[in-house]
Amino acid sequence: MPTVQLFATCLGDLVFPDAVRDAESLLVGAGFDVEFPPEQVCCGQPAFNSGHRGAARRVAWTFLRSFSRSAPIVTPSGSCATMAAHFLPGLVDCEPFDVWELSAFLDAQGVEPPRTNEGRRVAYHDSCHMLRELRIADAPRRLLERSGAEVVDLPRPDLCCGFGGTFSVRQPEVSVAMADDKLGGAVGVAAEALVTADPGCLMHLRGRASQLGETLPVVHLATALAMGIGGS
Amino acid sequence: MTELAQPAGRFREIARLKLTDAHTQGALDSSTARLYGNRTAAWQALPEVQELRQRAHDARMRVIDDLDTHIRRFTEALEARGGHVHFARTAEDAAAYVTEVSVRAGAKLAAKSKSMLSEEIRLNDSLEAAGIRPVETDLGEYIIQLAGEHPAHILAPAVEFTAEDVSELLSAVDGEPVPADLDALAQAARRQLRQVFLDADVGITGANFGVSETGSICLVTNEGNGRLVTSLPRVHVALMGMERLVADLSDLSVLLRLLARSGTGQRLSVYTTLITGPRRAGEEDGPEEMHVVIVDNGRSNLLGTHYREMLACIRCGACLNVCPVYRKTGGAAYGPVYSGPMGAVLLPLLVGLDSAPSLPHASSLCGACSDACPVKIPLHELLLELRKDLVERRVAPLWERLAFTLWSLAWSSPLGYRLSTGLGRATQGLAGLAGPGRAWGRGRALPKLGRRYRDGR
């Protein structure tokens, strides 16, 4: 069986363990042997994006020490995939790793997801790193469609949801206003759920929806595919 | 220079005010959406747009990497055609020169066409101090001058004003009500400004580009006021940033194909004017004197550094219109002159990071600006570099540097990670009380930390 290394990411490990389990089960279901390198911590992105290169480097080394180059690395986070694939090699001066965002990997492998969303109407939120750094926009939508869902367009899908790492706490008012536009857009197109492939966007949008008492579920893509949007 | 400074916290303070103002939010939403839609449609209608962007970038960088030569060539060419060129190292120098020229011309009234550089050097203050009345003749600039405000957008300065706001301002000038109807407003402004064009002793403009081969300046306008300002008064003074040169007319044409498309979605603006010197013998109109003031004011700090890409900016406004942060905050949060992503990059470079420490963080780093930039400035990457400089030059607060250092020490080993996140889980009830947790809690539920994924394996 082909092997993949699962990178849970810090947010996945700490805040969204269910989404990581769902990612694992999708990979296992597609016939992969999933390894979880136990020494993994974080890619260093929070410090990197705030300009703290020294701190970022210190944490990024844990990535170097825990992952091998013998099998693809798959992660349920567009943002951490961007960091690990694009920025980390320059930061710690190493050869690039073979890093994949989960949906891009599943799509490239021609994986047929379970029909968990038959007849459901979902909106997909592009995370900025996935859309503009990795240029992945079609794969998650295709997978959702193959799971039976109708994927509806959000108004202005190009607009950031306002998370932006430490931006979310440096400019909380602007950040929250941006989330309101995104959530309002999903409600406006009568989506039954708002799906995203990035734990950062997920934490931000779900946290805002919860504060507002909004009933719209905000669901990680891995969960939406493995369990269906109602199964989170 | 100090006028451009943005103390820490100012951005957030103004942004909060703007967010609670439904009127401004509506105006920002509709105007940025319209300009964004116009630009994307114009780009889609131009199959070679990506190739053009690369050519435009290359044309700009060729000049920036050999700027001394181009400034010399431009100066020689324009002086040969009877124009005067003054190189101003600082804002004060530039404003003093323009004021001096105006005083020497015996001016009482100066008609201005839109120039962000004149805002940057606070020219109006300098003219007024010398007893000269400056009148903005670009409709947007005229509106904000009447309102006593600063431009909220580099292309559309009055972007946050509605027709009702404008009607109120123009009615006050007329002393009788002007209906809040676009045609009526334009007619009223035209009537009010007509006499200014006729009476002005000096015409002051910016310059979208200078052509070093020919010594021409290029003005790109939509209202026709630029042509009146450069042809009716006896003296014409153009302000130009030192980086705004292009090598020749062929490079100019590449940039002109992108400028209006990226700004307003037009294929070309209504007026594209090339001016090469004052009126010559046998010509019937045009000014008797023409001056071009080439302004540095901090721009040369960028030369030879990786930030020099910012000098390629052609001030089209595309990055503002696409920016999800700008469309919420509007322009004032960034300061009185430049705003949006281009302002967030440029201002700290012009005035120093110490004087604008919040601006590199006034972005979610979504990267939409870089994709929208017609000259391919990697704006969000430059913001990331500026953040690095904030830390390395110790402008970032001590508590922040300490927090990231402690965090990175803890997370530099799996054991440290387990212990620190275990502690975080045990004390999560306190997270909302202070620091980032408290900021997060303004409007969002804090995530609950339970069993880690790794604990379940």
CATH architect. name of the largest domain in chain A: 3-Layer(aba) Sandwich
| Computed structural class of chain B | alpha/beta
CATH topology of the largest domain in chain B, which one?
Answer: Rossmann fold
Radius of gyration of chain A: 17 Å
Q: What series of H and E elements makes up the topology of chain A?
A: EHHEHHEHEHEHHEHHEHEH
Task: Please tell me about this protein's structure.
The complex is a heterodimer of chains A (232) and B (457). Chain A is α/β, with parallel strands linked by helices. Chain A has twelve helices and eight strands. The longest helix of chain A has 17 residues, at 172-188. Chain B has 457 residues and is of the alpha/beta class. Chain B has helices at residues 10-19, 22-44, 49-64, 67-80, 91-104, 116-120, 123-129, 139-147, 163-174, 182-199, 225-231, 249-263, 318-322, 326-329, 340-351, 368-372, 379-392, 398-410, 414-426, 435-440; strands at 84-88, 109-112, 133-136, 202-205, 209-211, 216-221, 235-241, 245-246, 271-275, 289-295. In chain B, β5 (209-211) and β6 (216-221) form a beta hairpin. In chain B, α3 (49-64) packs across α12, α9 (163-174) crosses α10 and α15 runs parallel beside α17 (379-392). In chain B, 50% of the residues are buried. Classes of the chains: A alpha/beta (232), B alpha/beta (457). The interface between A and B is large, with 63 and 63 residues.
